[in-house]
């Protein structure tokens, strides 16, 4: 089955659903998939669709073109929120992340080429991140004399070591995290050859989509919410989610073992 996003006729993102897996493809390759106001609005609408459509069990986030996954804000169009009251502002980039929309269905990010600056909004809130061997991660804020805050904070939340996050945020364009280093730091969980990236993401998505969705979504929610809670609170919430989500659990066949590929 193929469906369209809640946002009518998206112009910056491709979206389809097939066998319980939603595929979201950033589609501004001529702008290195940098986000503008239109993409931000369209992506936010798509996350709401993923959240609310029970036919969708897993989402794969990827990008078109050869050079980049996402290079952050499209500086040619510039910030569109600067005329707002400074006390009412919120960073519109947060709308790009699935967890801001309470999406508890697993999101797998498949990263290739450049992932720069605000591109981390997508990566930081993905549940599983894999990348191709040509992927590089860097932050251009320092080159422009700008503060880099929310993107590195999101990396810390993912467990990337403090020193590596600071180096990423302060070194600018001149220093880039390679795929191998991203794997070592825990920023990604798997590195594959470029031609296998989309296939690897889809294979993993299909495996997860075959699981009982109530169990999968409860697991995702319990883990993410624990990041903001004291251990005692997360243990109580985790027990509650297990009691709710495991009711009526059917017997399931054994899973086929899959070898994770490292480089």
Explained architecture:
- With 263 residues, the protein is an alpha/beta fold.
- It contains 8 helices and 10 strands.
- It has helices at residues 37-52, 120-124, 150-157, 162-171, 179-185, 197-209, 213-226, 231-245; strands spanning 13-18, 21-26, 58-63, 68-70, 107-111, 114-116, 128-132, 136-138, 177-178, 190-192.
- The strands form 2 sheets. A 6-stranded mixed β-sheet has the order 1-2-3-5-7-10, sandwiched between helices. A 4-stranded mixed β-sheet has the order 4-6-8-9.
- A hairpin with a 2-residue loop joins strand 1 and strand 2 (21-26).
- Helix 7 runs antiparallel to helix 8 (231-245).
- The radius of gyration is 18 Å and the shape is globular.
- The two termini are 35 Å apart.
In short, what is this structure?
This protein is an alpha/beta fold and 263 residues long.
Descriptors for this entry?
4-stranded mixed β-sheet; 10 strands; disordered N terminus; 263 residues; 33% helix; alpha/beta; globular
Oligomer: single chain
Shape annotation:
globular
Uncertain residue ranges: 1-7
Rg on CA atoms, Å: 18 Å
Number of strands: 10
Q: State the end-to-end distance.
A: 35 Å
Tell me the strand order in the biggest sheet: 1-2-3-5-7-10
Binned, the helix content reads 25-40%
Tally of individual helices: 8
Series of H and E elements? EEHEEEEHEEHHEHEHHH
Mean pLDDT: 89
What portion of the residues fall into strands of 2 or more residues? 15-25%
Report on the biggest sheet: 6 strands, mixed
Structural class label: alpha/beta
């Amino acid at each position: 089955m193929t469906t369209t996003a809640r946002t009518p006729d998206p112009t910056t993102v491709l979206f389809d659903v097939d066998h319980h897996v939603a595929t979201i493809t950033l589609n501004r390759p001529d702008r290195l998939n940098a986000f503008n106001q239109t993409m931000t609005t369209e992506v936010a609408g798509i996350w709401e669709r993923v959240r609310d459509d029970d036919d969708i069990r897993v989402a794969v986030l990827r990008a078109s073109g050869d050079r980049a996954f996402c290079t952050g804000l499209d500086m040619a169009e510039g910030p569109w929120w600067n005329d707002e009251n400074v006390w009412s502002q919120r960073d519109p980039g947060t709308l790009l992340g699935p967890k801001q929309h309470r999406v508890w269905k697993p999101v797998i990010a498949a990263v290739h080429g450049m992932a720069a600056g605000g591109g981390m909004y997508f990566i930081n809130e993905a549940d599983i991140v894999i990348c191709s061997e040509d992927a590089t991660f860097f932050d251009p804020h320092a080159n422009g004399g700008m503060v880099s805050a929310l993107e590195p904070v999101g990396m810390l939340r993912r467990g990337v070591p403090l020193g590596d996050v600071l180096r990423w945020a302060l070194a600018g364009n001149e220093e880039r995290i390679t795929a191998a280093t991203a794997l070592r730091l825990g920023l990604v969980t798997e590195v594959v050859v470029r031609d296998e990236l989309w296939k690897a993401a889809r294979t993993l998505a299909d495996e997860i989509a075959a699981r009982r969705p109530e169990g999968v979504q409860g697991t995702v929610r319990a883990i993410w919410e624990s990041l903001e809670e004291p251990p005692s609170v997360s243990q109580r919430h985790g027990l509650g989610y297990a009691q709710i989500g495991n009711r009526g659990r059917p017997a399931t066949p054994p899973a086929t073992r899959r070898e994770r590929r490292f480089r």
